[in-house]
Amino acid sequence: MLKESRAFSGFSTNDMEKARAFYADKLGLNVTEENGSLNLHLEGGGTVFIYPKDNHEPATYTALNFPVKDIDEAVDSLARAGIQLERYEGIDQDERGIARDENNSIAWFKDPAGNILSVLQGG
């Protein structure tokens, strides 16, 4: 029934201008604005819809994952942009905040509305 639908994901924010600046300026994504909402245009043709919500509550799960070729380089770029990595109790993370195992590496950070994002390598 929906096999040929071009599905997209979405989540809310409590400050559209901060969200636009974060995703466009800090992360360097192609961001367009339409009808008071944002569209993140991702590599490969995917789109993420970010909409305003007055009673926004941050996602308690990873809302958006960014696969990267080199997680150390990605983490360095995030740090240069002033983005701090998250640390989670019970997860073994190195001094930089990267959780690593023999096959995968992942690091989490938040957008200005508190939604959880990640960069990940492997898998």
In short:
The protein is of the alpha/beta class and 123 residues long. The chain has helices spanning 16-26, 71-80, and strands at 9-13, 30-34, 37-41, 47-52, 62-67, 99-100, 104-110, 116-122.
Percent range for β-strand residues: 25-35%
Number of helices: 2
Order of strands in the sheet with the most strands? 1-4-3-2
Rg from Cα: 15 Å
- Mean pLDDT across residues: 95
Low-pLDDT segments = none
Distance between the termini: 30 Å
* Helix content range: 10-25%
Briefly note the structural class of the backbone. alpha/beta
| Secondary-structure element series | EHEEEEHEEE
Could you give the count of β-strands? 8
Q: Categorize the overall geometry.
A: globular
Outline the biggest β-sheet.
Answer: 4 strands, mixed
Please, could you describe this protein's structure?
This protein has helices at 16-26, 71-80, and strands spanning 9-13, 30-34, 37-41, 47-52, 62-67, 99-100, 104-110, 116-122. With 123 residues, it is α/β, with parallel strands linked by helices. It has a 4-stranded mixed sheet with strand order 1-4-3-2, with helices on one face. Strands 5-8-7-6 form a 4-stranded mixed sheet. It is globular and about 40 Å long. The model has no long low-confidence stretch (mean pLDDT 95).
